[in-house]
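Action item from last meeting closed. Structure (106 res):
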């Protein structure tokens, strides 16, 4: 189910690229440029950290959903999607995180 939600959301985000920024929040983000999207990701990441510090599960879930959403907006704006990230995560299965990070530095 999760991948279906991500795929459906990715399709919607693509459609919003041609939507009216006056009528669509996502279209308004696209119109403001990548910097605006990155600022939202920064804000949402901070809110996730703050929520996690409180331990309130509903707040953590809500803020993480906001972070994921804005990250998906960024990916779409850059011509990427959730499948690109999921494929990378799948590639890492069975590999030590320490090894994976060392390989990226080479």
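Sequence:
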């Amino acid at each position: 189910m999760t991948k279906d939600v991500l795929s459906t959301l990715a399709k919607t985000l693509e459609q919003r690229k041609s939507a009216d920024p006056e009528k669509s929040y996502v279209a308004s983000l696209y119109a403001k440029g990548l910097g605006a999207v990155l600022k939202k990701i920064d804000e949402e990441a901070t809110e996730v950290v703050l929520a996690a510090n409180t331990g309130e599960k509903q707040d953590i879930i809500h803020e993480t959903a906001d972070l994921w959403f804005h990250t998906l907006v960024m990916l779409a704006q850059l011509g990427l999607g959730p499948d690109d990230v999921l494929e990378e995560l799948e590639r890492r299965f069975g590999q030590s995180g320490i090894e994976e990070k060392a390989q990226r530095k080479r």
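Note appended to the action item: The radius of gyration is 16 Å.
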